[in-house]
Design a protein that fits this description.
mainly alpha, 2 helices, rod-shaped
Length: 53
């Protein structure tokens, strides 16, 4: 019984970590896309490229 509870906890933690990782990737991709779009529309690509990691 104790082993089952521990396994369930570990699985839940794994799911939470995966969700956080996916959310982080999506937000970084979206941020970089917005930066690129901004650079294209305002012609300040130099500034944006320097700011982007």
């Amino acid at each position: 019984m104790l082993d089952l509870t521990y396994q369930h906890q570990a699985t839940t933690q794994l799911y939470v970590q995966a969700l956080i990782g996916i959310f982080f990737l999506v937000s970084v991709k979206g941020y970089l896309y917005l930066c690129r779009y901004d650079a294209g529309s305002h012609n300040i690509s130099g500034d944006v490229i320097r700011l982007a990691p």
